[in-house]
Amino acid sequence: MEISTSNLTLFTATLLIGLTAGLCFTWGNAVTPGIGQLDDLGYLQAFQKMNRSIENPLFFAVFFGSFLVGIAAIVTNKGVSPEHFRLVTVAIGIYFLGVVLVTVFGNVPLNQVLDKTDFANSSLEELQALRQRFERPWNRFHIIRIITATVSFALLIIAGINK
User: Fold this and answer.
1) Hey, what long-range contacts does 153-156 have (CB within 8 A, 24 or more apart)?
2) Whole domain around residue 36: which residue ranges?
3) Residue 3 has what pLDDT?
């Protein structure tokens, strides 16, 4: 395989989306079920701390970089073949809709509510109500991210194999 711009952007997009798919899978498979066993205060505190720690330059580079590099992959792979171009375009479209938009408009607003909560001054009833408003919707949005990140990753692998 020659090292061309189309190959490089496809490889990089596949790698970054694969990292995101792995993060989403691991979070949904191990992290949320594990902390889901905590009491309301423990669950909310743990989730708040994880949300704060994940907001770092490396995460943002991988998470948003995968979409930006994905756009570059679409552009640079346009002339390869119609089937290949469709696979790359669909993969990046799925990632954008199911991971980026779901995160920005689904998970992040819930995270922001959690981040603004002062647990020390919250009653047990308030903590229970917050968890009920947070946990199930957050996990539903996250399932969408797991599925779409994995599908996007798989389509990019197929595109790379069938180039």
Assistant:
1) 153/14, 153/17, 153/18, 153/20, 153/21, 153/91, 155/87, 155/88, 155/90, 155/91, 155/94, 156/10, 156/13, 156/14, 156/17, 156/18, 156/73, 156/87, 156/88, 156/91
2) 5-161
3) 84
